[in-house]
Write a structure and sequence with these properties.
single chain, about 210 residues, Elongation Factor Tu (Ef-tu), domain 3, 2 domains, two-stranded antiparallel sheet, 3 helices, Mu-like prophage DNA circulation protein
Length: about 210
Amino acid sequence: MSGWIMPIQQASFKGVRFDVLAVDDSFERAVVEHAYPFVNGADLEDMGLNTQTIRLQAIFFGSSYYTDYIRLLSVLQQKGADVLVHPIRGRLPNMLLVSANLHTDAENINYVALDLTFKEATEMQPIFAIEDSLITKIDRLLLDLENLFDDGLRFWDSVAVFDLKSRLLGLWGALFASFEAVRNLFDLDKKKYSIASSTSQRTYLRDGSGH
C-alpha cells in the first residue's frame, strides 16, 4: 500500500499469510472458590490455566489481497486445529480459528481488515475414561494385595504342615530307635523281631528332612 508507514509483522495459519497490526494474548486461570459462612474472603483452588486466547488485528493489502482473502475463506471452512505462526511467539501448535471478522470499505482499495480469534485446543480424555482407568488400577491393586495375602496364608499353612509332619516323624523315629535299643539290650532275634525297611528310623528321618 502506497505511503504505508505503520509497523507490520507477519503471521500465518494453514498456509495463509497475513500482516498483523496488533496482538492480544489472553491467559485466564481456572479457579474454584470455596466460601464459608461468617468468614471473609474465600479459599481459592487453583485448577490450572484455561485455554489461551489470541486475537490478531491483521490486514490483506496490495495486488494479491483478493487471492489471500479467498484462501482465508477456504480455511474458515476447514475443521480442526493447526499451527499458528504467531508474529512474536513463533509457532504455536493446536490452535483453532474460532472466529473471524473481515472488513472492507470503499475508501481503502485493495484492502481487507481482519479480526481473528484463535484458541488453544487440547485433546482431553473423557471423564468416564479417566474414572474407568482409575477404577481399573484400584481393582488391579486390590487383586494383587489379595493374591499376596493368599500366598502368605499358603506359606504359613505349609510351614505348619511341615512342622507337624516333622514332629510326627521325629516321634515315630524315637519309638523305633527305642525298640531297636530294647531289642539289642535283651539280645532278641533280629529276624524274629525285625522292623520293615519302609518304617525304619533312617527312613523317617529322611522323609522328615525332605531328602
